[in-house]
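Bug report (template v2)

What were you trying to do?
Predict the complex of my protein with FE2/S2 (inorganic) cluster.

What happened?
Run completed; filing so the output is reviewed.

Input:
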Amino acid sequence: MSTVPWNTKELTIGELSERSGVPASALRFYERQGLIHSRRTTGNQRRYHRTTLRVVAFIRASQNVGIPLSVIGEVLAILPEGAAPTEQFWIRASDCWREELNARIERLERMRDLFTECIGCGCLSFGQCALVNPRDQLAEKGSGPHRLTSEAPAR
Ligand code: FES
């Protein structure tokens, strides 16, 4: 049960953590990534507007379906400063997430089918295994040790 009154306009990081269930360390990380914002008190303590709770809820819901933070950040950047994600905003974003998830599921299904062919093989051949070298990308570069030369550290 939360001990923070609902009419509080600003939240400390501990209160935001308590309300959202998200660890303070994760909240600080979100802030470093520019996903949430705070103001600092004269004592240099973070204060979050209570609308940040909805932003954190949006981040967590998106993360829970596998959306990368970088993509979440791009969508949140559309929100005006200090505005909370509205129901409309969430519906639009979740439509985008659905397309992203469907594409991801299709990729995973293709990988599962390829993996099925690999089970019991163990060759890990750059020339034959589609998981090691999807769509034989190295062959498109012509002959030679492309993987070794392109990944070699600069001297
Ligand atoms: S491990 Fe042999 S084809 Fe993938």
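What did the reviewer find?
The beta strands are 10-11, 39-40, 46-49. The mean pLDDT is 84.
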